[in-house]
Design brief:
By secondary structure, the chain is mainly alpha-helical. The protein has 16 helices and 2 strands. Strands 1-2 form a two-stranded antiparallel ribbon.
């Protein structure tokens, strides 16, 4: 059996296993699909009430596209299965692009890493909107040098579904020499999206997803929440876990929580800006794409996770693309980052869905697992920033991605 055939067999088995596990694991890991996505789509198609157009929405407007596409395949076995098939199909296209003919050791390792990550993270990575944006983002990263306009269009479309690929787009603008092309693709997608939303009558809500995020409290799994979670575990007065019925998630409160909520969004912006400036300095000093883009993209994505007030399990999927590109370009230096990412994925699945019913009750074991995961994410961010800081000027790494 060829290496390429083995990877494709593993692809099918991993997606089948993870897809089925969404139906058998506790705490409804596929619940967002049929409890949230499907009602949004049916309201849009059957009642004419479109989220993001007729009302504020937590997601950018293009997020509705994959939700509608899944509805078109619900005749197979219902909407939830249709969603899993849609994510699998998107993954297959990006996986085929990554693997190619199976001749590159770096690409093979990156493909194996992606499959292992999907397996270790579990159904939360498949049954969320992020499951669609990850293959778009990975394909965009792979095309940044050879097809920069197409890459920018893909990354921009993914950003208008879920904001996180903007970190990859920013890294590309800094690290890719054809910056005008990258920026032009982003402008095209953004302009078309804004015009379409405005024509549909939703101009007032086009940026509603920004306000929806800044006004949130501290979600249970977010790294910054660990301090308050352990107060709940210790039984300190005023600290408790509660369910926010508006945004459908568990949050934590305690003494001083309002000040932390107020400072987190500016702190996130400062962290992202500082990393971007460091990357820009490296680019100005002549660092190549191959040396600069992976650590810069990894640092930006991890900053979005570590300094976020929200810590949903699917956020871990964001690190797939930068780690995979790092393995493609320099597998020796990125292998330990990949191991750390896989460990974080496993700990995340232990937290949700496996231990989540205990976590919301502030069980010490569940809180300990979550805290370990969050510490690992902070460690990965420190590694990525240190790696970025060590990028030398005028490196002689190859400009293009290795061929398959």
């Amino acid at each position: 059996m060829s290496r390429r055939a083995g990877l494709w067999i593993a692809f099918v088995l991993v997606h089948l296993f993870v897809g089925v596990s969404g139906f058998v694991l506790p705490n409804m890991p596929m619940g967002d699909v049929y409890l949230v996505y499907e009602p949004w789509v049916r309201d849009a198609l059957e009642r004419g009430t479109i989220v993001g157009v007729d009302s504020e929405w937590i997601y950018p407007q293009l997020a509705l596209i994959p939700m509608v596409l899944a509805l078109g395949a619900e005749w197979i076995a219902g909407y939830t299965v249709a969603w899993a098939l849609l994510v699998t199909a998107a993954d297959a296209l990006a996986f085929g692009l990554l693997v190619g003919r199976g001749r590159s050791a770096g690409r093979t390792l990156a493909a194996a890493f992606w499959l292992a990550f999907i397996l270790l993270l579990g159904p939360a990575g498949m049954y969320r909107l992020d499951g669609v944006t990850v293959p778009l983002a990975l394909a965009g990263c792979l095309w940044l040098i050879g097809r920069p306009l197409l890459a920018s269009l893909l990354l921009s479309a993914a950003t208008w579904m879920k904001v996180w690929p903007a970190a990859l787009l920013a890294a590309a603008v800094i690290a890719v020499r054809r910056r005008l092309v990258i920026s032009g693709g982003a402008v095209i997608v953004t302009a078309l999206t804004v015009i379409a939303v405005a024509v549909a009558g939703g101009g007032a809500h086009v940026l509603g997803f920004v306000a929806g995020q800044t006004g949130r409290g501290l979600q249970l799994e977010a790294p910054v929440t660990s301090w308050f979670l352990w107060q709940v575990v210790a039984g300190i007065d005023g600290a408790f876990v509660y369910y926010d019925s508006e945004i459908l998630t568990f949050q934590v409160t305690g003494a001083g929580v309002d000040a932390v909520i107020a400072v987190m969004t500016p702190l996130l912006g400062l962290a992202v800006a500082a990393i971007a400036v460091l990357g820009a300095v490296k680019a100005w000093r002549g660092a190549s794409f191959a040396a600069l883009f992976p650590p810069l993209a990894f640092s930006l994505v991890l900053a979005l996770i570590v300094f976020n007030k929200v810590g949903s399990p699917q956020f871990l999927t964001w690190i797939i693309a930068p780690v995979a590109i790092g393995l493609v370009l320099d597998r020796r230096r990125w292998r330990w980052a990949a191991v750390g990412a896989l460990a974080a994925a496993l700990l995340t699945q232990l937290v949700y869905p496996l231990l989540y019913d205990r976590l919301i009750l502030a069980d010490p074991l569940a809180a300990g697992v979550l805290t370990l995961r969050n510490m690992l994410l902070v460690g990965l961010l420190a590694w990525a920033v240190a790696r970025l800081a060590r990028v030398p000027r005028g490196t002689r790494h190859p400009l293009a991605l290795p061929r398959s």
